[in-house]
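Data availability (excerpt). The following record was deposited with the supplementary files.
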Amino acid sequence: MMALKRPRLALAVFASTLLGIALVAGCGQQAKTETASLPPERAIDFKIGVLTGTVSQGEDEYRAAQMMAVRFGEDHIKHVTYPDNFMNEQETVIAQLVGLADDPDVKIIIAGQAIPGSIAALRKIREKRPDIKIAFIEPHEDPAIVNAEVDLSIQPDQLARGRTIVEVAKKMGATDFVHYSFPRHMSQELLARRRDIMKQTCEENGMTFHFVTAPDPMAEGGLAASQQFITEDVPREMKQHGEKTAFFSTNCGMQDPLIRTVLQTGGYVPEQCCPSPTHGYPTALGIAIPPDKAGDFEYINAENRRVIAEHGKTGHFATWPVPEVILSMRAAADLLADAVEGKADYKDPATVKKYLEEKAGVPVTLTMYDENKGNSYLLLVGDIYY
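Predicted structure:
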C-alpha cells in the first residue's frame, strides 16, 4: 500500500479551542470548555447531543466533541461523558445518553464510541423522542442490530483491516504478528472475525500469527495493569519471535505503552486499533504539540515522523493520515445537521461518502454493512508510514 500524499485536512482553525479544557469532574455532568470567544462557524437553531469517553480511554473522540462546539457554538452542543469503567456502569451509560434527549432543542445525538448500553439507550430515546436523529460512531454492539436501528453508523472497516493491517506489517518486513486482546473484545463479532482474517492473511503471506491474551482494562487491575502488561510483554515477544515482529492491540489504552515500547526495543506497529496520528503517538513519542498546531495533522504527522527517525525506527510505524473517529464524528454532525434542515439525504451512500471526504481531505473507501438495507458504513483510509 503506497503512502498517500499529505492530507489537506483543515483542522488548524480548531487549535485555540483545545486549550484550557476543563475535564469532566464526574460522569453526571456536561463536559465544558473554557474558551467561547470565537463565533461559531455554522449557525443552527437546534442542539446536538454528544456522548464520548473521557481522555483517559480515547482522547480523539473527546476532542471531536470540542471541535463540534467550535463549529456549531458551545450553546448548541451538549457534551457528556461515559464512565471509564463503562462495562460495570451500563446504567450510567444509558442514563447519560437518554438524558441528552430530555432537552427539547436536541435534534441530533452522536455517540462516539457507541459502547455497550447504547442500543438500550437508543430504544428509550425512540420511545419519547422519535424525531431525534441518532448516529453511532464505532459501535461495540451487535452490528446487525445497529444497522437496523440507528440512523447513521460509521466505523472502520474491521474486516478489510484484517487484511490491510497485516499487509502493512508485511511491507515493513515483519515475519511475525502479535495480536493483543481479551475475551470481552473477542466477543464482539467484527473484532473476532477480523482476528481470524488477520491469522489467515498471515498464513497467506508466510507470516506467523500469535494471539496473546492481555488483561482487560475493565477488570480488577484496571487500565494500569493492562498497560504494564504491554510494557513487559513486548520485549518477551521480541525475544521469542525476533526483531521482525509486528504488534497490534484491540484496546485504546494500550496504544501508548505499545508504541513507546516498540520505539525502545524494536519491532513494528502497522496500525492502532483506532488509526490516527494522535492515538498514542504524541504521548508515547514525548511530543508537546504547540497550541497553534493542536489540530494541524500535517504538522503532527511530521513531528511523529521526526521523533521516530531520531530513534532510528523509520519505517517501523504506520497509521491513517487523519484520526478516524474525529473524521467520522465531525462528518456525521455536519451531515445530520444538513438533514435536519432538509439539505441532505443521510440515507444516500454517495452523500455519506461526500461528507467524509470533505472532512478527510483525502479519498476514502466506504462500504455498506448490508448492501440491501440499513445505514451502517465501514470506512477505510490509506496508510502513511513514519
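Summary of structural features: The longest helix spans residues 222-241.
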